[in-house]
Specification:
single chain, 157 residues, mainly alpha, 95% helix, 0% strand, transmembrane
């Protein structure tokens, strides 16, 4: 065999193999590599977007927590003011009830004292009449007795 013919045959086979590879083998490989590169780029973009969304969500969470704390503080302050107002109202109501009870007790005591004075006057008048009757040893007229008691009550008041 001739060396030149072998080299030419190998060169022709190499070019046919190169053409076949570029025409039928290389496009699917390149397509797979391009798809893989696109998937990787999409994944990286999604990861960057997720990072940005996470940072935004964290900022929102921090802001919402701050707002919630402020709202809770405001609500607590309002509740404390309302509680203090209710305590003051209860104290004022208790003082009013105590004052009313004292007034009622004093009025009742005054009325009881007045009734006791009236009863005492009647008893004193009855004792005075009984004493006078014993002294005189005779009974006084009932009408005169009633008149005397009425006069005595008027004088004692």
């Amino acid at each position: 065999m001739n060396l030149n013919a072998t080299l030419i045959a190998q060169l022709v086979v190499f070019f046919i193999l190169g053409w076949f590879t570029m025409k039928f083998v290389w496009p699917p490989i390149m397509k797979s590599l391009d798809e893989r590169a696109k998937k990787i780029a999409d994944g990286l973009a999604a990861a960057d977007k997720a990072k940005a969304d996470l940072a935004l969500a964290e900022k929102k969470v921090v802001e919402e927590l701050r707002k919630a704390r402020e709202s809770a503080g405001d609500t607590r302050a309002v509740a404390e003011r309302q509680a203090a107002g209710l305590v003051e109202e209860a104290r004022a109501e208790a003082a009013r009830i105590i004052a009313k009870a004292r007034e009622d007790a004093e009025a009742e005591a005054g009325a009881a004292a007045q009734r006791a004075k009236e009863a005492l006057r009647e008893n004193v008048a009855a004792l005075a009449v009984a004493g006078a009757e014993r002294i005189l040893r005779k009974e006084i007229n009932a009408q005169a007795h009633a008149d005397l008691l009425a006069n005595l009550k008027q004088e004692l008041q």
